[in-house]
Amino acid sequence: KAGVTQTPRYLIKTRGQQVTLSCSPISGHRSVSWYQQTPGQGLQFLFEYFSETQRNKGNFPGRFSGRQFSNSRSEMNVSTLELGDSALYLCASSLRGRWEQYFGPGTRLTVT
Amino acid sequence: GQQLNQSPQSMFIQEGEDVSMNCTSSSIFNTWLWYKQDPGEGPVLLIALYKAGELTSNGRLTAQFGITRKDSFLNISASIPSDVGIYFCAGLNTGTASKLTFGTGTRLQVTL
C-alpha cells in the first residue's frame, strides 16, 4: 500500500506571496492532519480534516487554511507569506477510529 | 505551542549499547506514540501505546506508557548505526480528535 504523498517536496516563495501544498493520504484513510515543523517550535499541529470537514484547529493565524476533497486528498494554503513561515510542512493520515498517524515526507517551504 | 519535554536532548552512544529516553508532560494523555525522523523525511511511527502501564515492543524497541499518564519511555536495545535519527514522543487525547502534541525530540547518534 502506498504511503502518504506530498507535493511539491520543495518550494521557494517570496514574502507576500501565497502557496498551496497538497497531500494524498494512504488509501482508505479519511482523516488528514497537517503539522508545521521548525527548529525553534518543533512540530506544531495546524488542523485536521475528516470527511471534508475541519475537526480540529491549532493556534495558527487565519492566513493558514486548508480543505479536504471527497477523495480524502487535502490541501493547505498559506496566504501573505512571512519569513517565519519557512518550515517543513507535514501531512499525516489515519484510519477512522484509529489514533496512529502516518506521515508523509513533507514539503520544505522556504520564504525569502 | 505546547511541546512535551524529552530527555536527553541528544546522545552519542556506541554500537551495541542500549538506549533509554523519556518524555514528560504536565497534562494527562490517553495515547502515546513514538516516532523516528530521518533528515529531510517525515516521522515514521514506531510504537503506539493506549493504556497506562502498558509495555509494548517492536523488535529491539520497547516503549512504556507511564502509570501517571503524564510520561512515556522508549528503550532501544543493542543499537545499530541505522538507529541514528531524531526520536519524538507524541501525546494524544482522543477527546481532542487527532491533535498530536509532540515532544522536543531526542537526537541519537551511534558510533561504530
Task: Provide structural commentary.
By secondary structure, chain A is mainly beta. In chain A, 0% of the residues lie in helices and 54% in strands. Chain A contains no helices and eleven strands. Chain A has strands spanning 5-7, 10-13, 19-24, 31-38, 42-50, 53-57, 64-68, 74-78, 87-94, 102-103, 107-111. In chain A, the strands form two sheets. In chain A, strands 2, 4, 5, 6, 9, 10 and 11 form a seven-stranded mixed β-sheet that branches. Chain A has a four-stranded antiparallel β-sheet with strand order 1-3-8-7, with no helix packed on it. In chain A, β9 (87-94) and β10 (102-103) form a beta hairpin. The model of chain A has no long low-confidence stretch (mean pLDDT 95). In chain B, strands 2, 4, 5, 9, 10 and 11 form a six-stranded mixed β-sheet that branches. Chain B has a five-stranded antiparallel β-sheet with strand order 1-3-8-7-6, with no helix packed on it. The chains are: A mainly beta (112), B mainly beta (112). The A-B interface holds A 4, 6, 31, 33, 35, 41-45, 48, 50, 55-56, 58-59, 90, 92, 94, 99-106, 108 and B 1, 3, 31, 33, 35, 40-45, 48, 50, 88, 90, 92, 94, 96-105.
- C-alpha Rg of chain A, in Å? 13 Å
Whole-Å distance between the termini of chain B? 37 Å
What distance lies between the first and last C-alpha atoms of chain A, to the nearest angstrom? 37 Å
- Number of helical stretches of at least 4 residues of chain A: 0
Largest interface, C-beta closer than 8 angstroms, per-chain residues: A-B, 28 and 27 residues
Low-pLDDT residue intervals, each spanning 5 or more residues of chain B: none
The oligomerization state is heterodimer
Largest sheet of chain B: 6 strands, mixed
Rough outline of chain B: globular
Number of strands of chain A: 11
Q: Name the helicity range of chain B.
A: under 10%
Helix content of chain A: under 10%
Fraction of residues in β-strands of chain B: over 45%
Helix and strand element order of chain B:
EEEEEEEEEEE
Major sheet of chain A: size, sense and barrel closure?
A: 7 strands, mixed
Structural class of chain A: mainly beta
Percent of residues in beta strands of chain A: over 45%
Give the H and E element order of chain A: EEEEEEEEEEE
